[in-house]
């Protein structure tokens, strides 16, 4: 996922379509879980850019937390591009 704004936009779209089945904060990744019309589940993730990963984000990888889009946007910036890997090919 390119930005947290885009992740939040997709959260709204999935919710409106009745396809959002969950969301989570894995510390260094922020994820949405959806289900397509055939019942297949999928994940959409935004990765914290490497230069923004701090001890708090590293420690949060040991648990699965609630995704709080507003707090994440305030912390990392709504238009900050996600890290290399899934959202931006290496």
Detail the topology: elements first, then pairings.
Blueprint: H1 4-16, E1 20-25, E2 29-35, E3 41-47, H2 55-59, H3 69-76
Could you walk me through the main structural features you see in this protein, from its secondary elements to its overall organization?
There is one protein chain. The protein is an alpha+beta fold. Helix content is 29%, strand content 22%. The protein has 3 helices and 3 strands, in the order H-E-E-E-H-H. The protein has a 3-stranded antiparallel β-sheet, with helices on one face. A hairpin with a 3-residue loop joins strand 1 and strand 2. Helix 1 runs antiparallel to helix 3. The longest helix is centred in the N-terminal third of the chain and has 13 residues, at 4-16. The radius of gyration is 13 Å and the shape is globular. It starts with a helix and ends in a 14-residue tail after the last helix. The mean pLDDT is 92.
The total count of strands amounts to: 3
Shape summary: globular
The class by helix and strand makeup works out as alpha+beta
Q: Secondary-structure element order, as H and E?
A: HEEEHH
Specify the number of helices.
3
In terms of DSSP E residues, the strand content is 15-25%
Describe the biggest sheet? 3 strands, antiparallel
Work out the oligomeric state of the chains in this entry.
single chain
Percent helix range: 25-40%
Task: Give the CA-CA distance, first to last residue.
Answer: 14 Å
